[in-house]
Amino acid sequence: MRFLPLRVRRLGLPRRAVSQILLTQLAIAAGVLVLATGLFLAPLSHQLDDQAMRRALAIAQSAAADPTLAADLLRSAPSPDSPVQAAAERIRSATGAEYVVVLDLKGIRRSHPSPDRIGLPVSTDPGDVLAGHEVMEIDQGTLGRSARGKVPLVAADGEIVGAVSVGIAYDSVRDRLLGAIPGLLAYAGGALAAGALAAFLLSRRIQRQTRDLAFSDIAGLLAEREAMLHSIREGVIALDRNDRVRLVNDEAARLLGLDQDRTEALAGRPLDEVLGAGRTSDVLAGRVTGRDLLTVQGPRVLVANRMPTADGGAVATLRDRTELEHLSRELDSTKGLIDALRAQDHEHANRLHTLLGLLELGLHEEAAAFVTEVVGVHRTTAEQVTEKIHDPLLAALLVGKATVAAERGVPLRLAPDSLLPDRLVDPGGLVTILGNLVDNALDAAAGSATPLVEVGIRAEGRTAVLRVRDSGPGIPAGRREEIFTEGWSTKQPAAHRERGLGLALVRRLAERQGGSARAGEAEDGGAEFSVVLPEALR
């Protein structure tokens, strides 16, 4: 015969969170009821004892107030047939007391429910009551435990001649206490049932909200969520229904320029207070709708998406497009240069054909003059730029932009007062600012009747002042601030990137250096952009 192994399941709390919560709630309700019942019964017992002692004292006072009882005590001897015994038994029968004992000054019983104990000393010390004091107590006597009341017995002349002792059986007090318990338990049972029902309903609600997961599963999910949020290379920020921050992961803190060591302190704070008013707050709060929304926060270009949650809040994701935006702009510049080179190649071929024709015709002097003129034009442009702009990056940018502008039929010239020494603190930032402004000016001036773009760069102490004006249609006064917001553009978006970031970056770069960027109206009716950069020169 083979015996199968017996598998014994360890007793303990169930794994499901709803079962644990239900059992905990029931245990708490039962514990509260037991405590409340005990707290109720303890004072009730004392209260019943006090009522019994006061009742015994009142009966003793009524008996001692009868003047005939003191007179009968003085003129009769201890006997079961004495008038004192008869009066005491009459009072005991009328009040339902356990006993009514009359004693003299020597502590000898003159009355007792048991006649054979008449004439014997009392079992407790009668000193206090014979001294004139009323006594209430719970004590153990010859008839068992009882609630007692003792009163001095005073004769007509005011002298104490004895005492009256009345006892209430303690069993009757206990019976009253035990009689109150069933009703109390009924109320306690009803309260326990109501608590159990409330605990069940609460546990069902928690079951739906936790999807019947165990506490260990919930803890594991929270740990996994924390690890995932802080390890992914995409910014995540969660908001509640009132646009208060719930959580910010490390990447979001980095992209938004927040302190990565104090992200927990941001919980509960309004989004506008954390980031400040602006497009980034509007995008994350849902005041600007759409997918893959572009915004600029500090020096970074971010792509934001927002997903509402069931409780009215939202989770927003952020991706860094700063490097991609720089690459896109470099691609635009490269494309422009390629177009310019292609056009120059075509123009160069035409010039070579012209030169070849002059040589074949024997017009050598005319050919020499033609070459001198062509070379002189390009040399003059480069010399004019480098003469006034001593920084090589800015000079190269302007020479390249002048070539592109010439191919587009838009003259680009330097303002007469332009002069910038080679002492720039951040040449790369100035190249970005000037490149964006010149590109926008070329686009605006290309369609005008007399196209022109003028660039002015000058140094005032350690401050650099840039001015770019064009002959385009200009900017209405009511929209001169709007054009610096992310996403605003009058041009069709390119295939590889979105428009509407150039001027926003210009202002952000200027403000990051403590400067400003403004748009105004040029003298000839076009647009004029002014950028002031304090501390831009060494």
Automatic annotation (TrEMBL):
Pfam families: HATPase_c, PAS, sCache_3_2, SPOB_a. It catalyses: ATP + protein L-histidine = ADP + protein N-phospho-L-histidine. The chain crosses the membrane at residues 21-44, 184-202. InterPro entries: HATPase_C_sf, HATPase_dom, His_kinase_dom, PAS, PAS-like_dom_sf, PAS_fold, sCache_3, Sensor-like_sf. Keywords: ATP-binding, Cell membrane, Kinase, Membrane, Nucleotide-binding, Phosphoprotein, Transferase, Transmembrane, Transmembrane helix, Two-component regulatory system. It is found in: Cell membrane. CDD domains: HATPase_DpiB-CitA-like, PAS. It is a multi-pass membrane protein. It comes from the Bacteria. SUPFAM superfamilies: ATPase domain of HSP90 chaperone/DNA topoisomerase II/histidine kinase, PYP-like sensor domain (PAS domain), Sensory domain-like, Sporulation response regulatory protein Spo0B. GO terms for biological process: regulation of DNA-templated transcription. GO terms for cellular component: plasma membrane. GO terms for molecular function: ATP binding; phosphorelay sensor kinase activity. It is an enzyme of class 2 (transferase). Residues 426-537 form the Histidine kinase domain. PROSITE patterns: HIS_KIN (PS50109). The keyword Kinase applies. Its EC number is 2.7.13.3. This is histidine kinase. It comes from Streptomyces katrae.
